[in-house]
């Protein structure tokens, strides 16, 4: 065995011992290149989703139906930009990450599919809050418990704010569903967004998912997170008189 391979093996063993004991990893010296690649994949995707989320909400400051709602939307946009900024600051510790290139070049190509769909109406917007910010909230629960200490600590506040966005969506979806004049429009928005947001959880039981879990970068399989989300939205939406598809209805 070469010294280099031996060093990497020793590093791996020490890292796994820490991970398995439930301790947090805090420095680049403690993590193997395999861990580092997986961690960066997830953190870069999250950073972009925060930014894309903010951009999608921007037109709804102007499009909001009341002045109070304009302020609510401006606050949501501010939250998402702050989430993006916090994520890119975490990425600054990794010299191999070119943050400007990510923000100004790569992002337009590598964005999650759901963010390419335009939010066309206020009903679309509040349904997106209801479904997508909630999906983010559940995914961030895993990030808040991740083995990478700096990320897990940063997630605590961000997670709280996502739930405020969800509440915003929930209040409006409930209100618009209560009126027989607007309920069909809410159902249409649900039918459109449901399979698209369902897709963001990713494939169940994949090999890469097992790796993420082994390193405690993720805590649960994608499908387990999806199930928690689904079991929450289904009874809520049904209580508003709406119909939601099956859990395996996922946009291709
Ligand atoms: Fe966010
Ligand atoms: Fe959000």
Care to describe what's here?
With 252 residues, this protein is mainly alpha-helical. It has one domain (31-239): Up-down Bundle (Ferritin), CATH 1.20.1260. Helices cover 72% and strands 0% of the residues. The protein has ten helices and no strands. It has helices spanning 3-21, 33-57, 59-63, 67-91, 99-110, 122-144, 149-178, 183-198, 207-214, 222-239. The longest helix is centred in the middle third of the chain and has 30 residues, at 149-178. The radius of gyration is 20 Å and the shape is elongated. The structure holds fe (ii) ion (FE2) (2 copies).
List keywords for this structure.
single chain; 252 residues; mainly alpha; Ferritin; 10 helices; 72% helix; binds fe (ii) ion
What's this entry about, in short?
This protein is mostly helical and 252 residues long.
**What general outline do the C-alpha atoms trace?**
elongated
How many whole angstroms does the radius of gyration measure? 20 Å
| CATH architecture annotation name | Up-down Bundle
Q: What's the story with the biggest beta sheet?
A: none
Please give the alpha-carbon distance between the first and last residues. 46 Å
**CATH homologous superfamily label:** Ferritin, core subunit, four-helix bundle
Q: And the CATH topology?
A: Ferritin
Q: Can you give the mean pLDDT?
A: 95
Order of helices and strands: HHHHHHHHHH
Which ligands, by name, code or SMILES, are bound?
Answer: fe (ii) ion
Per CATH, the class reads: Mainly Alpha
Overall domain count: 1
Unreliable stretches:
none
The beta-strand count equals: 0
Q: Assign the structural class, choosing from mainly alpha, mainly beta, alpha/beta, alpha+beta, or little secondary structure.
A: mainly alpha
Portion in beta strands: under 5%
What helical percentage do the residues reach? over 70%
* Individual helix count: 10
């Amino acid at each position: 065995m070469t010294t280099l391979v031996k060093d990497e093996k020793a590093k791996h063993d020490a890292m796994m011992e820490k991970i398995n004991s439930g301790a947090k990893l805090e420095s680049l010296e403690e993590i193997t290149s395999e861990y580092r690649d997986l961690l960066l994949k997830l953190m870069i995707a999250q950073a972009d989703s925060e930014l894309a989320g903010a951009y999608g909400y921007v037109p709804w400051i102007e499009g909001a139906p009341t002045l109070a709602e304009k302020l609510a939307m401006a606050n949501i946009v501010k939250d998402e930009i702050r989430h993006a900024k916090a994520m890119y600051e975490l990425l600054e510790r990794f010299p191999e990450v070119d943050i400007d290139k990510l923000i100004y070049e790569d992002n337009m190509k590598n964005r999650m599919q759901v963010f390419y769909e335009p939010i066309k109406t206020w009903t679309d917007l509040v349904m997106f809050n209801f479904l997508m910010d909630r999906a983010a909230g559940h995914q961030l629960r895993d990030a808040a418990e991740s083995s990478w200490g700096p990320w897990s600590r940063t997630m605590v506040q961000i997670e709280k704010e996502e739930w405020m966005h969800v509440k915003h969506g929930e209040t409006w979806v409930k209100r618009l569903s209560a009126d027989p004049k607007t309920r069909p429009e809410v159902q249409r928005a649900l039918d459109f967004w449901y399979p698209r947001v369902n897709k963001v959880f990713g494939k169940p039981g994949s090999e890469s998912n097992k790796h993420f879990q082994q390193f405690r970068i993720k805590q649960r399989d994608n499908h387990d997170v999806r199930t928690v989300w689904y079991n929450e939205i289904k009874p809520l939406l049904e209580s508003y008189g709406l119909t939601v598809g099956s859990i395996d209805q996922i946009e291709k």
